[in-house]
Amino acid sequence: MASRKISVSIPEELADQLEGLPNKSEYVTEALRRRQRADRLEAVFAAHGVTVTDEGKARMRARLAEKNRRRASGTEAKAA
Amino acid sequence: MSVHVILDKTALASYAVLKDWATPVAELMATVMENGGLIGVPALCVLDAFAELNSAERQHLTELFAGAEGVAVILPLLSHDTLPIAGRAPRLEAGFAHVLAEARTQGALVATYDVNLYADELDEDDVLDLSE
Prior knowledge:
The structure holds two protein chains of two kinds.
Chain A: H1 12-19, H2 24-47, H3 54-79
Chain B: E1 3-7, H1 9-17, H2 22-34, E2 38-42, H3 43-52, H4 55-67, E3 72-75, H5 79-86, H6 94-106, E4 109-112, E5 127-129
Parallel strand pairs in B: 1-2, 1-4, 2-3, 4-5
């Protein structure tokens, strides 16, 4: 895939974080791709009149975390 | 990226009608994406859902799949799953049998609006009730 070198300005604390990474380009590319996916998904939901709120995502995140915690402890119990 | 959650026919159909039931499905998709995972949709569930939806509702799902590129993937029916799934008919609809096969293969949660469908097949911790 062709690539291009560009210069951007970002906040100091993020620049510090980026400096410590072995592959800055890969990290930024993945972050942008994730943002693109989120924007595309959000656009479809908006077009369909479906509203996703931060509160709704937080609730779902908590439910998934709880399910995964219980699944992990169940797996450990079976293995013991 | 791995498949974190599998959507069954009830989840697909609920999104397609775009009433209140669509919101939990959308919240789930957005959350899984933010967690760096994928949503898996067994191919047979897509066929089953489309068979029950009108053309406008089908269009909603088509648009959802297009917009969810890189977030949701349709899981094909693999040759080694075909006969075991076929063998569960007529007791179990092919789409649901495909969900069970993929849940085990992917080690993923199943998201559904009808938890009773899976009561005899999966642990309750492996099923996410979208109606809650």
